Amino acid sequence: MNKFKETFSYLMQEDKDLNVSRISQTHFYASLVMAVTALIMTIQNVRNESWVMAVATTVLVVGMVINLYITGVLRNYKVSSVLITILAGILLSAFVIIGGNEGFACLWILLVPMLAVTLLGIVPGVALSLYFMVFILILFYTPLREIIVQKYTVAHMQRFPVLYACDMFLSLYISLQKEYFYRKMKEKSFLDELTGAYNRNSFQDQMTKTEILNSEHLSVLMIDLNGLKKANDTLGHAAGDELLIGLVKIIKDVFGSIVNLFRVGGDEFVIILNQPKENVEQYISDLEVARANWKGRLNSELKFALGCASKEEFPDKTPDEIIRIADERMYADKAEFYKKNDRRR
Question: What 3-state class would DSSP assign to 277?
Answer without folding.
Answer: helix
